[in-house]
Each structure stands twice: as structure tokens, then as C-alpha cells.
Amino acid sequence: MKRWVKMIRFIGGLCLVTLLGIAYVSYLCHNSLCLAPEHSSLSPRYSVSSSSSSSKSEIPSSPASLVKQIGGFPSKVNIESVAFEEAYDMGFDITSRDVIVFLHIQKTGGTTFGRHLVRDLNLENPCNCPKKRKRCDCFRPNTVNEQWLFSRYSTGWKCGLHADWTELTDCVEGALDEYEGTSRKRRYFFITVLRDPIHRYLSEFRHVQRGATWKSARHWCGGQEFTSLPHCYKGSNWTGVELDEFMNCSYNLAHNRQTRMLADLTLAGCYTGYNTTADQLERDRILLQSAKQNLASMAYFGLTEEQATSQYIFERTFHLDFANPFDQANATLSAQAIAELTPAQIERVRQLNSLDNELLEFARQLLHERFKKLKRRDPHFRRNWLRVIHPHKSERTTETH
To answer: Could you list the residue ranges that cross the membrane (predicted)?
Structure first.
């Protein structure tokens, strides 16, 4: 009898140890892709295709070659996303199921652009923007709750504060279904604005120095919200931080922010082991290629430093005109901020944003390619371009003819 009691206790002990071991491993591996093959951190939504000549796909050197080679990371996102060519050929149908989704990256001029979208488009049924309210109702004609614009100033931050590409593609359809009270398939026209990385980074630094944190951002990725990302500061904010301290925080999300927010983060293990030295070069390669691919696949993007070109491309792509032109912001303040830095600090900022620098060069080339293509197709280019760069002169010219 005693032998049976001892055996039962032994088996019970083994079961308890096993259960505790499973619980411990699950805790350590929470969303860390522990069960994936070694060196593999790819999302189940994506896979990296390999060619016969190389086991790793190379990042194309030019926008045109990337657009042609867009199979680097084949997308399995379950929403219908409209690319630039299709947007131009078919146009944007505000009366049907088309939705513009604005991916708003911090300190790129997105706030001004977002206001242009809700207040300045020439529409038969413009957005309704009540006084003393930040958001506008951008409903389709003859509807009371169907949104054609998904942005901060229309729907609000439905997918989280400054939601990135990973969050938006996973969230936007469900968010609109919930908002409109019905489930339906839509066509999504993703758009964004990019800015010179050094100017953007310094602008974010000064914003944080004044007390901004964006601590309510969700950082949703791979089916979960990453709420325990480390902060670079103690207390409620980082007010008064100096630039060197700002740069020295290795997990500062300001570093290469534009690349990270445009990439599919699930391809690189989301935020697990973020900014660790292990396989960092490979992670950077994946994020940069993904960001380039997603940017090239967007219906539209603009550059803060090229407002007129950006406006023209938007208007011709969507066949929608703005009542008020985009203002080219004076770069004096940014130039003054850079002039206050030492050469070593400028170089450090450049190094911390090396991916964004390469992304911007890619974006600049792609923007000019799109501009040239639209110019060739535009039988009224001179009139349309003049209206963008000299709106008042364009009005007088129209009146005299």
C-alpha cells in the first residue's frame, strides 16, 4: 500500500513539474516565435521568395526595378489594396466602396496634409466639419455613416495612435465594419507622407523635449499588442532631454521611424528583441525592403520637401482637386536647428536614420517617376501645373479666356 502511495505521489509530482515547465516556456516565448525554425522570423502572412541564383532577395537599386520585382515579399493581407497604376486608371469612386487610408507618420507634415484632406478637396458632398470639433464627417453621398476617408481627422485613431502599416492592414476593415455597423468588402487606397530623415528626427526630438510621448500607441503586431516596450525615460515624459541622451537610447522608436512604420513588422519578429545586436543587419535588410515594397504599392505618397509635385500627383491620381494649394514650409527653422549641432552630432543622427535615408532616396526617385508618367498622360498639364504652383494666377488666366 505504501508503495502505491509513493508511486502516485511520484507521478503527481512529475505532472506538476511538467505543467510548471510548459507555463514557464510559454511565458518566455510569448510572441517571440520560439517555435519557428532557427533564423526564421517571418509572419505566416508572408514568405520570402528565393531565386535560383541566390537564397536571399536583393534590394533593388531603383524604384522601377522594385516595382517590377514586387514579389520579394508576396502579400497575403486579406484586404483589397489599390496600387498607383490602378488608382490612376480606374480612379477613386467616392460613391462606391473605395476608402482612402492615411498612414500618418509623426513629424512629416501629416497634420497639415490631413487637414487638407477633410477641408480642401473640391467635392460635391464635402466633409462636414462642425466648429469646436476636431474630427469631420466624411460620409459618402446619400449615406449617413459610410466613411470614404480613414484618418485622424475623419474617423479618429480607430487603429491606434499613429498606426503603422502593420497595424492598419490588420485593423482597418474591422474598424470600419464596427463603425458602420455592417460587414463589407472595400477597396483601400493607402497614402502617406515622408520627410527628410534628419529634419524629421530633429523635429521629433524637439517635440519630445517639450513633453510629447505617444505612449498611448498600441504597437499592434502579429495578433497582439506590445504594451511592455521599454521607455527611454523615467517618469511621465522626457521633457528637457538633450539630443545626445535622445540619440543614446538604443530602443528609441524615433530611430528609422519611417522605415519601421512602412514595413511589415511581422517579417522581422514584430518587437521581439527589438534593436538587439543579434541578426540586426538581416533585420534591417528585411525592414528596408519591406518598406520600399509597401511604399511602391501605395496608391499615393508625398514628400514634405516637394509639396507642389506631391499635390499634382495626388490630384491626377485620384482625379480630385484641392481648393487650396499645399504650402511649401520654410526650411529656415530646420536649417537653424542643424546649424546648432556639432559635425559629430549630425553624423550620429545620419547613422541612426540610415535606413530612412535610403528609403527617402528611393521615394524621391519613385515620386519623380510618377510625376513624369502623369505629366505625359495629362493633355492639360500646363494648366493643371500652373494651378498648383500659382493658383491665383491660374484663376485670372481662366477668367480671361
So the answer is: none
Residue 372 CB-density burial (10 A; 0-12 exposed, 13-18 middle, 19+ buried): exposed
> What is d(CA 76, CA 210) in angstroms, rounded to the nearest whole number?
41
Determine which one of 116, 162, 219, 255 is catalytic: 162
160-208 pLDDT, tens digit per residue, is 999 999 999 999 999 999 999 999 999 999 999 999 999 999 999 999 9
> Of 290, 285, 276, 288, which is closest to residue 32 (Cα–Cα)?
276
Which residues are 187's β-sheet partners?
Answer: 80, 98
Contacts of 323 (CB under 8 A, 6+ apart): 120, 121, 122
Distance of alpha carbon 35 from alpha carbon 42, whole angstroms: 12
Distance between CA atoms of 55 and 73, rounded to whole angstroms?
A: 13
User: Annotated catalytic, 231?
Assistant: no
CB 279 within 8 A of CB 39: yes
Q: What is the torsional sign of CA 214, 300, 338, 115? A: negative
Contact 104, 114 (CB under 8 A): yes
User: What pLDDT does 317 receive?
Assistant: 98
CA-closest candidate to residue 190, choices 74, 326, 296 = 296
* Contact of 209 with 100, CB cutoff 8 Å: no
| Cα→Cα distances 124→94, 119, 130, 368, 391, Å | 10, 13, 18, 31, 21
